Amino acid sequence: RWTTFSICSPKVCIVGSGPAGFYTAQHLIKVDIYERLPVPFGLVRFGVAPDHPEVKNVINTFTLTARNSRCSFYGNVNVGKDVSIEELQQAYHAVVLSYGAEGNRRMGVPGEDLAGVYSAKDFVGWYNGLPSCQELSPDLNCETAVILGQGNVALDVARILLAPTDILKKTDITQPALEALVQSQVRRVLIVGRRGPMQVACTIKEFREMVNLPDTRPEMMADDFEGVKEALKDLPRPRKRLTELMMKTALEIPSEKEQERQSKASRVWAFRFLRSPIEILANPDNSRTVGIRLAVNRLEGSGDGARAVPTGEVEDVTCGLLISSIGYKSLPIDPSVPFDSHKAIVPNNMGRVQHTAGLYCSGWLKTGPTGVIATTMNNSFDTARSVVEDMESGTVDVSAARPGSQSISGLLEERGVKPVTFSNWEKIDSLEMSRGEASGKPREKLLTVEEMLQHLTWTELILYTLKGNPMFFIMDAIINKLLQCKSIQMV
Amino acid sequence: MALVTALRRLALVRLRECSRRTAAVTSGAWLTGQRSFTTGTQSLRSDNKVTVNFINRDGEKITVKGSPGDSLLDLVINEDLDFDGFGACEGTLACSTCHLIFDEDVYKSLGRVTDEEMDMLDLAYGLTDTSRLGCQICLTKSLDGIVARVPESVADIRQSKDGSS
Ligand SMILES: Cc1cc2nc3c(=O)[nH]c(=O)nc-3n(C[C@H](O)[C@H](O)[C@H](O)COP(=O)(O)OP(=O)(O)OC[C@H]3O[C@@H](n4cnc5c(N)ncnc54)[C@H](O)[C@@H]3O)c2cc1C
Ligand SMILES: NC(=O)c1ccc[n+]([C@@H]2O[C@H](COP(=O)([O-])OP(=O)(O)OC[C@H]3O[C@@H](n4cnc5c(N)ncnc54)[C@H](OP(=O)(O)O)[C@@H]3O)[C@@H](O)[C@H]2O)c1
Ligand code: FES
């Protein structure tokens, strides 16, 4: 399927080391990956919920790709700031942008910036250890939380807010988040959508997890499902099965055993439909949120394309915590790169950035911020295929040699930027795992960039003084172990 | 060097490393819930083996033999079959990239599908009524000679719709 061509080592680089970066790299002969953070894997590390460790198995394949001599990882390099796209284009025959979607859609309603209102992107980043979100310290000192949006991210957030902390403490959730959740007063989570039950964006596996979540019970409203049964038969299988499970949850009388389980549950979750945010309500001194005003909608049309139209009626819901989970959003990286600000993607044709030979994109930046890892994988393979085709056809001229990482490394050194190699990441990785082991978790993440870099400097310094010593390897192992203990005390 | 050969070799190396690694890493603390890929169950008697015919995305037929008890994903890995992106979650029912399509009679003989497998299948590309997830199907002697088709990827579907390839 991959056409043949014979040119000596065209130079390709990728910006971003999430699934898109790694799946694109997997199909290119020789490739350098530039990543802003000292640590790789993007949303697999900082997005995927801590109680979904199996999803993170993709990291094993990424690691094999990165360890291969054909692939070099340069972490701690902020493209657009430390090095420009133009400089990359001069150094490489092809540049693939895979930097994901690091912004979020805004509700665009008054009160959005009040205390107690968070974007799901920040909330997720907080419990998953994203360095830029560690100051968030969300206030969980209220009974009811409202989540806006009914996608899988909304369900991740709901689950983290409601799951027994005995379950969470065995995951790689950060220690500060775990402690906050242990203290959390949140007992009720409302997951609010602007359209109806047949338009929810979440998938069935995640909904079923909510249904089965220990110590919680659903509180769906039967009225919401009027007329839904009649529409079921025409739905495609995935939508049909999901709708059936929601109906079962809302309408059927549970088995005796389930009734008993539910009656003992201390926390509640519910879906609310046909409601759009119009204003976040503040307390009298305007210092924090106390609720949300919602417009009551009706649906125009049917199926996936149905539109929410306000009826004019409004409804106020009291809540002390409001999390807006209405989608992520890609941001432009450099004025020289075309950007469709309406769709918030880089406009492209099969991954080829419009009007810019040699520039490509993959992942959420290419498609918009939807799709699971498998979707991202497929669209990244497509982009890699475009790169290969263009080099073969001559659309991208690879006859003249380019310096690749050599010239970029020079630029970075001049600018005082010290890239983190993949083997350096593996040092951070093993430190995190041994710190986790100490507290019965699979990993205890380092929470700041400084901490990550500091650990590497320490290791380097000690290894440097030891070089030349015949006991080097034994000492290396001992020192690594000692350093790990030291860092545990340091934090 | 021809890219295609290099890519295939790369992928093969990757898969080979992969099967070795997963066998070695299953006790790794943070990979909880990971199912180990069966290795080393090869029986000396080849008549104990189960023959499986895979049809890859190019329509080529690839015939391999596996041991009873292995899953179809194990087989793909042990035999170094190069199906792009197959088995991303390593058999933990979290990705749907091990999607395979069967003929109706074979599908019926594969046994009951759990809700959890159905949930994950619902996310698969090109879902059919006779689709299954390869990591959930264990070989038995009675499956000898089955045909399992690897579905086209989205790009293939799009391209053949456009008529552009
Ligand atoms: C909260 C959440 C949970 C999810 N859970 C699941 C799940 O359970 N299962 C599933 O299949 N899918 C899940 N997904 C979807 C999945 O994460 C995405 O499909 C996938 O991560 C998109 O990959 P990407 O590489 O395009 O983006 P990202 O994963 O975001 O990777 C982008 C990378 O680029 C880097 N970067 C950004 N800017 C720069 C720059 N200027 N210079 C250099 N590098 C830069 C970032 O640091 C990051 O590492 C989830 C998504 C979210 C948001
Ligand atoms: N476990 C997993 O597999 C997993 C976990 C997390 C994320 N993911 C994937 O990652 C992707 C992103 O997830 P996501 O939840 O961020 O996005 P999403 O699936 O697109 O859901 C966004 C939700 O926000 C709503 N919304 C959008 N704009 C709105 C507005 N202005 N006002 C009110 N509501 C609005 C949408 O409703 P409308 O439909 O009406 O627009 C929808 O309910 C998805 O593909 C998801 O499947 C997967
Ligand atoms: S390998 Fe992921 S679901 Fe089968």
Automatic annotation (TrEMBL), chain A:
NADP(+) binds at residues 150-153, 194-195, 206, 371. Belongs to the ferredoxin--NADP reductase type 1 family. It comes from Sparus aurata. Residues 11-161 form the FAD/NAD(P)-binding domain. This is NADPH:adrenodoxin oxidoreductase, mitochondrial. Signal peptide: none annotated. Coiled coil: none annotated. GO terms for molecular function: oxidoreductase activity. One of its GO terms (cellular component) is mitochondrion. It is found in: Mitochondrion. The gene is FDXR. GO terms for biological process: cholesterol metabolic process. Its main location: mitochondrion. Keywords: Electron transport, FAD, Flavoprotein, Mitochondrion, NADP, Oxidoreductase, Transit peptide, Transport. FAD binds at residues 20, 35, 43, 79, 364, 371-373.
TrEMBL record, chain B:
One of its GO terms (biological process) is P450-containing electron transport chain. GO terms for molecular function: 2 iron, 2 sulfur cluster binding; electron transfer activity; metal ion binding. Residues 50-154 form the 2Fe-2S ferredoxin-type domain. Its main location: mitochondrion. SUPFAM superfamilies: 2Fe-2S ferredoxin-like (SSF54292). Its cofactor is [2Fe-2S] cluster. It comes from the Eukaryota. Keywords: 2Fe-2S, Electron transport, Iron, Iron-sulfur, Metal-binding, Mitochondrion, Transport. It is found in: Mitochondrion matrix. One of its GO terms (cellular component) is mitochondrial matrix. Belongs to the adrenodoxin/putidaredoxin family. This is Ferredoxin 1.
